[in-house]
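Objective 1.3, modelling of assemblies. Example input:
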Amino acid sequence: MNQKSATPRDASAVILLNQDESKVLWAQRNPKISFLGGFHAFPGGKTDETDAQIIVKNCADKNLEKFIVCAVRELFEEVGVLLVRGGEKLTKGQRASLHDDLISGRSNFAEILADWNLWIDAEDFFYTGHWTTPKFSPVRFKTRFFIAKCPPKQTPYAAITEMQNIEFIAPKDALVCWAKSEVLIAPPVLISLQELAKNEFTDLQRSIKNLLEKSQNCDGDIEYIELNPHIICFPLRTETLPPATHTNCFIVGRQEFVVIDAASKDEAEQAKLFELVDSLIEKGFVCKEIIVSHLHKDHFGGETVLQDHLRTKFGLEVPVSAHRITAESLQGKVKFQKFIEADELITLKDEAGVNFAIKALLTPGHARGHLCFYDEDLGFLLSSDNVVGAGTVLIAPPEGNMTDYLNSLERMKNLPNLQHLCGSHGSAIFDAKAKIEEYIAHRAEREKQVLEAFQNGAQTAEEIAGVVYQNLNPNIFPLAVKSVEAHLEKLSSNNLI
Ligand SMILES: [Zn+2]
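Predicted structure (tokens):
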């Protein structure tokens, strides 16, 4: 049941430089926003139909015109900076009042510019290319990036509730925050910061040229995401449960690394992963294990192909591993050469050769042999299918067990130094603890509803599901019944029914 990836929407973003061109403006997106909540980003957003009504002076590339307008409008909306010609005559108070008109919908941006005799000059903007949100995201944008300089006497501020912790920062300092896993950064922002950090703005034109080339070389497609210096997330198309379309394969470590859930059975997807793995091996790095997190069909299927590939191409023998329970369940389907014990520490090496470890956490509930992986140094949890960024987690007895699942969530929530997580589907999540608490609360609420439906006379799991899950797509009703069975099992073992 393969779903189509979401169609990208047009958008623009601005890499705003401070007056002396030593820093860039970034801000944290409100963690409550569903798309990249909690991530650090440049100001920007999707195009508005009125953007095309505004003329940009000196715009040689007419295709970019509406995106420059979008960039200027979003910059004004989000951080209160009005990057237009003629704008210097406005007072701070007047700008605030115009901002208020725009946000409240009293005037649109075209009207504001016309009324105040303001205009946009394309010469204030340097295009650095476009990037598209990876296919695994339920919401996608094709974003055009521009570099521009903040006008004198204007100070950016968080002008809407979607933005917080706004600051100008030197790109190299931004990368330090990322390396310590203090922030999450979306790939195009990371690529821009890495390029700008290279020469510290001593040759801005060269950085712009390099960024544009990078974007053009891959037509803005992002295959994988560097979550932090230890972990790469590589979404691969699998036969998973809608609305998810991909399973996140993780490459953890560099000089010594493991590959978790190389699950795609699709040859084209496998080839993309091999390209990255090969590039690491060609640098002399070592693939220590190919891990299967649990028994579901969207988590295995490509691991043996990867193992064969590494044997054929490099003469390497890399073991395929899982927890013993998973290995037993997959007997005849996958051959395992190694078992991972509960709480086993898997020691790896980063790019510089420094050791770090991920702990394999046996976290049953969704599946009996289910493993999560925790990098305590960076506070980053790979939550596999126990907590995900897209779709919902199914607890289906007899493999699934609600009591075990909730115990696993409690254990995950209380991990020391827990900051962020990334599950097997969808994007990384900034506030891991809040997300796990939300999951626990959701299950408690569902249990209450199941108990109430039972006490009101619904007897079978089907009847209860009919009461609890109203207006449900009939295709997924059988899954809802399974989930109710899991709640009933827990209620019964607690002598509540
Ligand atoms: Zn699963």
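Residues 262 and 276 are 12 Å apart (CA to CA).
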